[in-house]
Description:
Elements: H1 2-13, H2 17-27, H3 32-37, E1 46-50, H4 56-61, E2 66-71, H5 74-80, E3 88-92, E4 105-111, H6 120-130, E5 131-142, H7 159-175, E6 185-186, E7 205-206, H8 209-219, E8 223-227, E9 247-253
Parallel strand pairs: 1-2, 1-4, 2-3, 4-5
Antiparallel strand pairs: 5-9, 6-7, 8-9
Amino acid sequence: MTFNTKKKLFEFWDKDEEYFRFARDANLVLKGEREDMLRYINPGDLVLDVACGSAENGRYISQFAHYVGTDISSIALKMGRDYKNENFDLVHSDAEMLPFADNFFNVVLSTYSLEHFLNPKKVIDEMYRVCKKTGKIISISPAWDFPLSLPPSLGRLNRLQKFKFIFKKSIKQLCLPIKEYFSPIIINNPSIFDEGYSQDNDTVYVVSIREIENYLTKWLNTKLLFIQTKHKWFNKIPFLKYWRTNILFIVVEK
Length: 254
């Protein structure tokens, strides 16, 4: 099932230019977490952008560091060439099998892509592998840690199915502070396959901020440099720590 979903997603991303034009319009203006991300990149760094899409990040990063963007979509990479300069390179590859040597990049980042990976653990492992010792790994993506928050890709579910999904997600939230594990909730049949594109209806992985934090810092033994969270009274309760934090923005040092 997962293989078929991945194949269908790859086919969609490799033929639908409108999808990437929508993303380009949103990303051309550098703002929010993407702007904050730049302060973790030093002049002259070698930077890898995993699942870069049409490479709007490279437009800004290549002004002071060497940018390498990689994506599975040839259409997206073709669009990304609009920003090409002497500090800007693009490589066609699957994020689960990055074609780079171990310990190669000063910074490895992924922005608004993690939610599209059917095997996020493998992608994170690959990001870790190609990152230099003392290098930085940065991830930014939408998060749905609040149990009632559901990605648009679940729009086809009926009420009972949504309730079951919410229940499963809530149990995970309760257990994560007690038991550290990495068990992502994968959506094998996102609504994009039956509907026209709308934002995030191609989401296949429901990101849990605590789960990513645990995996990076405790399983991979990285040093946490920054993680975004809210500061409401309920965020002081362990299993509610990231409620209402709708964006995963984490920076770790290898």
